[in-house]
Every structure is written in structure tokens, then in C-alpha cells.
């Protein structure tokens, strides 16, 4: 099956088995290794990407659902100003240990910052509830996102031209 979609702001086309998972397409066909497989059941969030601007677990999305969609992976998000801000905040608070879950947390945190961004711990916990970290406590991760929300507000002029990917 031939599938046409937008991947990290580029139009792509691929001939693929309609049931092949987006996770495998990203890693095997496009060499985008940032998206990780944790559970393969949509429970851990390690494979989270944005599809049409919303977080999805790529292990549960098949190729047959990609036609005309827009996919944004951790690789593209890491290059965006808000992505860079988040990475700096995760680093500043020492929130990441092994790093396996980090791509999914970065994608979910990015979505939170572009869609809401309120410095509200309960909202941040809810936004990240689809991501599991097996190495560290969640407190530093929540602190990182809270710090990013604060910095985004303080330096809003730097982020005023940034809009969610749709």
C-alpha cells in the first residue's frame, strides 16, 4: 500500500504493509530512532509522537491510518524553540536518568506547552499521565515542565510566533 503523509514538515511517500506500525516505519524506513518501543501496547508512552498535532502512541497506529496525516517526532520537536527550552529545563533539573522514556516525555511536554502551558502541577501531571518512567521519580520531570512553563511566560516574546502543528 502506498501511503502519503507529512513527516517532520516534509511530504513523504512510502510503499508499506498497511498493518505495519508507525513506530516501525519511523525507525526502520526513515531512520528516526528517537521514538522508542517500551511496551508495544500503548501504555508506557515511550513511542509518543504528534499526529495531526495531538499525542499518540505510535505503536498503536498502523500505516493504513497515515494517509494525509501530519506526524511530528521527537527529532523535529527537539529543533523547535519550545523543544529546546524543554530540553534545557529537563537538563537543568536533572530529570532524566537513562533517557529511554525521555523522547515520549518531551513530545507530551511539548504538546502541553503549545496547547496550554499553565504553571499548574495538576494539569502537568494529567498531560504526562500517558508516559511512564522506570528509573526516576516523577517529581523532577514535573519540575522541569513547570520551569519550562515559567520560562515560556517570562520570555513569551521569543515564542510568540510559535503555533501548534496541525
Give an overview in words.
The protein is of the alpha+beta class and 166 residues long. The chain folds into two domains: 72 residues, Beta-grasp domain (Ubiquitin-like (UB roll)), CATH 3.10.20.30; 83 residues, DNA polymerase, domain 1, CATH 1.10.150.120. The chain is built from seven helices and five strands, in the order ββαβββαααααα. It has a five-stranded mixed β-sheet with strand order 2-1-5-3-4. α3 packs across α4 and α3 packs across α6. The longest helix is centred in the C-terminal third of the chain and has 16 residues.
Secondary structure: elements and pairs:
Elements: E1 2-7, E2 10-15, H1 22-29, E3 48-51, E4 54-57, E5 70-72, H2 74-77, H3 81-92, H4 102-115, H5 121-127, H6 139-154, H7 156-159
Parallel strand pairs: 1-5
Antiparallel strand pairs: 1-2, 3-4, 3-5
Helix pairs in contact: 3-4, 3-6
Would you give the CATH topology of the largest domain?
A: DNA polymerase, domain 1
- The portion of residues assigned to helices is 25-40%
Q: Output the structural class.
A: alpha+beta
Average pLDDT score? 93
Q: Tell me which CATH architecture of the largest domain applies here.
A: Orthogonal Bundle
Number of helices: 7
Distance between the termini: 25 Å
Structure summary, number of beta strands: 5
**Which strand order does the major sheet show?**
2-1-5-3-4
* N to C succession of SSEs: EEHEEEHHHHHH
Q: What percentage of amino acids are in beta strands?
A: 5-15%
User: How many domains, as an integer?
Assistant: 2
Task: Characterize the biggest β-sheet.
Answer: 5 strands, mixed
Oligomeric status: single chain
CATH homologous superfamily assignment of the largest domain? [2Fe-2S]-binding domain
